[in-house]
Design goal:
Elements (H helix, E strand, L loop, with lengths): L2 H13 L3 H8 L7 H8 L2 E2 L4 E2 L3 H14 L26 H6 L7 H13 L6 H4 L18 H4 L35 H21 L8 H16 L16 H22 L4 H5 L7 E9 L1 H5 L10 H27 L6 E5 L2 E7 L2 H22 L4 E9 L6 H19 L47 H12 L5 E5 L18 E5 L7 H7 L3 E6 L14 E2 L11 H5 L22 H5 L4 E2 L5 E2 L4 E8 L2 H7 L6 H25 L13 E6 L2 E7 H19 L6 E8 L5 H16 L12 E4 L2 E4 H24 L6 H19 L8 H14 L7 H26 L4 H11 L2
Parallel strand pairs: 9-10, 16-17
Antiparallel strand pairs: 1-2, 3-5, 3-6, 4-5, 7-8, 7-9, 11-12, 13-15, 13-16, 14-15, 17-18
Helix pairs in contact: 1-11, 2-4, 2-9, 3-4, 6-11, 9-10, 10-11, 11-22, 14-15, 14-17, 16-21, 25-28, 25-29, 26-27, 26-29, 27-28
Length: 884
């Protein structure tokens, strides 16, 4: 056996230990086998004389059903470390027995799964047997729906009945990510029907996974993990009486599998494989939690060179995805060095990852070796602009107990912070202090890379000198619109023509359309040359996520030209011919995006500002939320929170950009360019007006997503011309975000929960009031005036903007003369209305003129009294939309 295969079998057994929860609630046909399975796997309760935890019996029954599809790994024979029942009746350590016996464990391997199950849930060693293993299911456990952890953050101990929000029992999609009120079925039949639909989805999804990948268990596990997420993300893992259904079956399964794999490996490598060794060792630090974090990401993404702006639409996308690839490949390198399956990687989001490994000498040596590989690659290819910090934190089973888990989280954050400040181990005697061959790597004829501006160029194929790293960035940016799958392989000539020019920590990366083209890639899978196969396509309009392959949620949305754009191509002006049209995938440049908010005026001319808006934001106080947010934190809850935050930005956001509509039913966000979005932050570029509107949409949806007013995000918007260099876009948006984060109340208490645009910072509630109620009311009054001949002029809007400034200064008492703004408003509105109104008859004109003047003056005065200088936001938007 290989150690990786053996560990993968342990992981699969633990991963599916609660398969029976889905099967039992779905009421699958047990063909008369239920009583026998109860006797094998379910605890007998003398008080009441019944078998409890019947789902364990269904795990064995459901496992047989999965095998019967012919698309499930065949583990029925002897497959180390498991032994088939048929082989030796005295060693009932089959994979399915280890999975099913977690409530009634007997053998060492069964206790490995049972212990991991308890540790993932935060139970103390004896608490599980003393309390939970004797609890009955609630009477309506079919109807119990998953609570949202977000609603509970910061509220202390809170009873289930006091919580309002629950997730609908549906497969994973951008819309089913959101909790709702009224999701709980009123009868058991309807509730079980929902479960049965999920069971059928699981069976159908198994058949979508390429059969050629089935015998490559680590590869197959990665695919199955995506299917299990799709089916189980909203299934409550625990529905026993007195237990809140607050952790999804997916997150509990994933953390249990990771812990079981590490636990078995520790005992295997220590040669301590008895039940006593396992049960009495809860204080031994058997786990090593390995964190990775990229640094220098933003500087790397926005690096500049002579050709940077010309290729900005491909470069920004390519660099961002390249960072995601590097993070995935770094985690894969560690998993490969440690012979751990993909289920041992709990987190990988926004350049950060977490792997659960055995705390052994071999593991620590492998981490050191991987660190050397990462440092060498980053110094060689990026000259230290980016790097990977690794932190390894030992932990025992008792560290995961609910009472102590907060301390473990703090230790993890502390260890990662140390790693960030110890980049490249430069104080180590063996670390390079300089790049001793940097100048020698320059070709005298090619010079520096025109994309990056600093790296040695090695080719001039595009028509200008370029480095291999930049060449890959452009290739990635193009591939993302044409191919939706990535193959990660070891050194193999068969993928060379489709691979990127660089290897990534030794891995070869190819972008392909078909994951099993003519059976060719299937052969690579059987030969163990194909290590991973990832699908990163955006969900379609109905939100379907799983397509038979492992998912990597990376926000890769980019706008492309369609038939509507072709019909209105003259709005792009002199940039119309700049499109690098690909017959299949014509990608819009930043110049085209800047023109997208222009509107066709009555005179046949396009009207509106040509500009981009850069939107940058992140969640407020996320570290504190993770460290102190939940009253009873567990490993599974922690993993769940991280996953759900990540999916808002990587699953819902790109889907909404493509398919989302505003309150008028218009899909105006499809021209948004995602530079990066994931983890807890985002950076978007798009047409100025649509992006301003998108910021508000994101905040409103995020508010509904977390169902907790204490969880917020702040954002900053910068409006620029399309020719502005990419790095300036980043800096200006970052400055705006910093202003939002610095928002305070009058007592100096930090508020955050804000957005900044044009140096004006407001809270989100005020933002929505200004851009909906106030903007709508003003636009309505001005439109009414225009209908009667008082055509709105930019001069009048400039006057209003000046008066806004004066009113704000007068409120602050800075200049007494500014107090005259009210009389100046009346004068200028009178000129605007009275001099332009065209109405036949003096009496009619007077009748109409005065109410309009009073209404406009009243609205402006009330708005300034409530919002002060912030009223310039809707005024400026109105001005920019009117520009010729």
């Amino acid at each position: 056996m290989t150690l990786l295969d053996a560990t993968s079998r342990v992981a699969l057994s633990a991963y599916l230990h609660d398969l029976g929860k889905l099967a039992e609630r779905a009421n699958i046909d047990h063909a008369g086998r239920l009583d026998a399975h109860k006797n094998l796997y379910c605890p007998w309760q003398d008080n009441g004389r019944y078998h409890s935890h019947v789902h364990a019996a269904y795990t064995g029954i459901a496992w047989d059903e999965l095998e019967a599809t012919g698309h499930f790994p065949d583990l029925r024979g002897t497959c180390p470390p498991f032994v088939s029942i048929e082989t030796d009746a005295n060693l009932p350590d089959s994979v399915v027995n280890a999975a099913s016996a977690h409530h009634k464990p007997d053998t060492f391997l069964q206790w490995v799964v049972a212990t991991a199950d308890r540790v993932a849930s935060g139970f103390e060693r004896d608490e599980f047997d003393r309390t939970y293993n004797h609890q009955k299911e609630r009477d309506n456990h079919y109807r119990a729906r998953l609570l949202t952890l977000f609603e509970q953050i910061g509220k202390g101990e809170i009873a289930e009945g006091e919580l309002n929000w629950r997730y609908p029992l549906k497969t994973l999609s951008p819309e089913s990510l959101f909790p709702g009120i009224g999701c709980t079925p009123t009868d058991n039949a309807a509730a079980r029907a929902e479960y049965h639909q999920l069971w059928n989805t699981l069976l159908a999804g198994l058949k979508q996974i390429p059969r050629s990948h089935r015998d490559n268990l680590p590869l197959w596990l990665d695919h199955f993990d995506a299917l299990w997420l799709t089916v189980c993300h909203a299934i409550p893992a625990a529905t026993a009486f007195g237990v809140k259904p607050e952790v999804s079956l997916y997150d509990h399964s994933k953390t249990t599998a990771a812990l079981a794999a590490a636990l078995w490996r520790w005992h295997h490598e220590q040669d301590k494989q008895t039940v006593a060794d396992l049960r009495n060792g809860w204080d031994e630090e058997k786990f090593l939690l390995i964190q990775g974090d990229f640094f220098g990401i933003q500087h790397f993404i926005f690096a500049e060179g002579g050709q940077t702006n010309k290729h900005a639409h491909k470069l920004l996308r390519g660099r961002s995805f390249q960072v995601s690839l590097l993070a995935e490949c770094a985690a894969l390198t560690l998993l490969d060095n440690l012979s751990l399956p993909p289920t041992s990687q709990i987190i990988n989001a926004a350049g950060k990852f977490l792997i659960v490994a055995p705390n052994t000498a071999q593991t620590r040596a492998a981490v050191k070796h991987a660190e050397h590989i990462f440092n060498d690659w980053c110094l060689r290819q990026t000259y230290g602009e980016i790097g990977i910090g690794l932190a390894a934190t030992p932990a025992s089973c008792n560290h995961f107990v609910q009472k102590r888990f907060n301390d473990l989280i703090k230790n993890l954050f502390k260890a990662l912070d140390v790693a960030k400040h110890r980049r490249f181990n430069l104080c180590d005697a063996h670390s390079p202090a300089i790049f001793d061959d940097f100048l020698q790597r320059f070709n005298n004829e090619l010079g520096a890379c025109k994309i990056n501006g600093r790296y040695p160029a090695e080719s001039d194929l595009p028509g200008y000198p370029i480095s291999p790293l930049a060449e890959d960035q452009i290739a990635i940016g193009k591939a993302l619109t044409q191919r939706a799958r990535v193959l990660i392989s070891r050194d193999t000539d068969s993928l060379k023509s489709k691979s990127l020019s660089l290897d990534y920590f030794g891995w070869h990366i190819a972008f392909v359309r078909d994951p099993d083209e003519s059976g060719h890639y299937g052969q690579l899978a059987r030969e163990r040359k194909l290590i991973r196969c990832w699908d990163f396509r955006r969900p379609d309009a109905n939100g379907q996520v799983f397509h038979g392959l492992a998912r990597r949620f990376v926000n890769t949305y980019v706008p492309i030209f369609d038939q509507i754009d072709a019909a209105t191509a003259d709005k792009y002006g002199h940039w119309q011919s700049e499109a690098d049209f690909d017959a299949e995938h014509p990608i819009k440049t930043l110049h085209h995006l800047a023109c997208e908010d222009r509107q066709l005026a009555e005179n046949g001319q396009w009207r509106g500002e040509i500009a981009l808006a850069t939107l940058k934001g992140d969640i407020d106080n996320l570290g504190a939320l993770f460290e102190q947010g939940l009253e009873t934190p567990t490993f599974a809850k922690w993993a769940s929170l991280s996953r759900q935050i990540h999916l808002f930005f990587t699953l819902w956001l790109p889907w909404f950009c493509k398919h989302g509509k505003d309150d008028k039913g218009i899909g105006r966000y499809c021209n948004t360019y995602t530079v990066f979005a994931g983890g807890d932050d985002f950076f978007l570029i798009g047409p100025w007006h649509a992006t301003i509107a998108l910021a508000g949409e994101m905040q409103q949806h995020f508010k509904r997503y977390v169902a907790n007013s204490g969880i917020t995000f702040s954002a900053g918007i910068s409006m620029t011309q399309p020719k502005v260099p990419a790095r300036h876009l980043a800096r200006s948006a970052e400055r705006a975000l910093e202003q939002s984060k610095a928002r305070q109340n009058e007592a100096g208490i930090p508020l955050k929960d804000a957005i900044t645009l044009w140096d004006q910072t407001v809270g989100w509630q005020e933002w929505h009031t200004l851009l909906t109620e106030r903007a709508g009311k003003l636009a309505q009054l001005l439109a009414e005036a225009e209908q009667h001949g008082a055509k709105l002029s930019t001069g009048y809007l400039y006057d209003l903007l000046q008066l806004t400034g004066k009113a704000e200064r007068a409120r602050l008492g800075r200049n007494p003369e500014d107090s005259l703004w009210r009389s100046q408003l009346v004068y200028r509105t009178t000129r605007f209305i009275g001099d332009r109104l065209r109405i036949s008859g003096q009496a009619d004109a007077s009748t109409l003129r005065r109410p309009l003047q009073e209404a406009i003056n009243k609205e402006f005065t009330l708005a300034l009294a409530e919002h002060g200088g912030a009223y310039r936001l809707p005024l400026s938007i109105l001005l920019y939309t009117r520009r010729e």
